[in-house]
Design goal:
GO terms for molecular function: ATP binding. Keywords: ATP-binding, Nucleotide-binding. Helix content is 44%, strand content 18%. It is α/β, with parallel strands linked by helices. The protein folds into 2 domains: 118 residues, 3-Layer(aba) Sandwich (Rossmann fold), CATH 3.40.50; 255 residues, no CATH class. Helix 3 crosses helix 4 and helix 12 packs across helix 13.
Length: 386
């Protein structure tokens, strides 16, 4: 079963504008399927295949000549030196839509692209399915707990995989392998401890020193390991928003898992009914909504421009979405009933900046308009507000 990806329209537009389009995203997010289904007339090369990779490394000119002028090159970070040869080829051949590259580690790939393909490639970020993509395929759940537990990995839906088994294998096969290779980790237990502690602190302002003490390594190591998780699209860093608020504003980031199904697995949740009883239920729901907002921005080919606000008095807005100079203030609550008390953070934020054009409460209840240009929105309709 192929579920159509919202980012497909932007991919087609970019192919008309650039000789190369690079699709970045976590393992198993559907990058290969998107490219193959959208570009059936393109030839295909997967650099995960040892034989293909060897040819690309040993004789890149022959490799490119063999595949012609329209080709999808999968997991291109495995042979980053190929990019300079692609640069030469696109400059010789001219014309847009020649190459589609995919990669699952953005640090090394972005560095290589900036050196070889600057000005020649557009970059798209593809995350696992969004709620709206599932809805378009007539796949819906009644409760947010079911979305969170099932997660959004394409294979779970396309191959009817059991979520716990799928995320267990995903963690062992991709996260442990990829991340351990990148950081050359000797003691896997320390990294496993870090990622599980990070899961327990999702949506919290992160104190690197405190986390380092709990893991048993120094803060510099924790920062490095988290940067690798971020570069591998396992976690997303939400930075604080501040303009001229001075020392009142918290300036440490929050982290969320790019797939809430993986978060639930790491928290030891083995059935959806556990979520509503979990002490982190609010943070799990918040993770779901923040990443749905991120997917909405990515699928349109735009920068995320997502932040949170918190000052030293505890006034907070869960999400601040920026569009140009205008802001949208978003409060996220797992409750199904509305109360005015839920809007305190929004009202406080709106009182200290004049850039907010609209404000939203995202929760599990019915949608309706409130006073002061504030709307309550059901979590499945997040895309409509961004």
């Amino acid at each position: 079963m192929f579920i159509r990806r919202a980012i497909g329209a932007e991919l087609q537009e970019l192919l008309k504008e650039y000789p190369v389009v690079t699709i970045l995203g976590p393992r198993q997010a559907g990058k290969t399927t998107l490219a193959k289904e959208s570009l059936k007339e393109y030839s295909y090369a997967n650099l995960e295949d040892p034989e293909t990779r060897e040819i690309a490394q040993e004789d890149p000119k022959a490799f490119l000549a063999r595949h012609g002028d329209r080709v999808v090159v999968d997991e291109v970070q495995r042979v980053p030196e190929l990019l300079s040869h692609i640069q030469v080829r696109v400059d010789e051949v001219k014309g847009n839509g020649q190459y589609v590259l995919t990669g699952s580690h953005q640090l090394s790939l972005r560095e290589a692209i900036s050196q070889s393909l600057a000005g020649r490639t557009a970059i798209l970020n593809l995350l696992p399915f969004s709620i709206s993509e599932l809805k378009a395929a007539d796949i819906q759940f009644d409760r947010f707990e079911d979305y969170c537990f099932t997660g959004f990995l394409p294979r779970i839906y396309e191959e009817s995989q059991r979520p716990t088994t799928a995320y267990s294998n995903y963690y062992q096969t991709y996260i442990e392998r990829d991340v351990r290779q990148l950081i050359q980790l000797k003691d896997a237990s320390l990294f496993e401890k870090l990622i599980k502690l990070l899961a327990g602190r999702t949506g919290q302002v992160l104190d690197y020193s405190s986390l380092a003490n709990d893991v048993g390594v120094d803060a510099k190591t924790v920062r490095h390991w988290i940067s690798i998780l971020e570069a591998s699209f396992i976690v997303f860093k939400l930075s604080p928003y501040f303009e001229n608020f001075g020392k009142r504003v918290i300036k440490s980031p929050k982290y969320y898992f790019t797939d809430v199904g993986l978060l639930c697995f790491l928290l030891g949740i083995r059935e959806s009914d556990q979520i509503s009883r979990d002490p982190l239920v609010g943070q799990i729901f918040e993770n779901l909504v923040v990443i749905e907002c991120l997917k909405s921005r990515y699928n349109k080919g735009t920068l995320p421009d997502l932040y949170f606000f918190r000052d030293n008095k505890g006034n907070e807005v869960d999400l601040v979405a920026q569009s140009g100079r205008a802001l949208k203030a978003i409060e996220i609550k797992s409750a199904s009933t509305f109360s005015m008390n839920q809007l305190r953070g929004i009202r406080r934020f709106n009182s200290i900046t004049d850039k907010v054009e609209s404000s939203y409460l995202i929760y599990t209840g019915d949608a309706h308009s409130l006073s002061d240009n504030i709307s309550a929105v059901h979590f499945t309709s997040v895309e409509s507000i961004l």
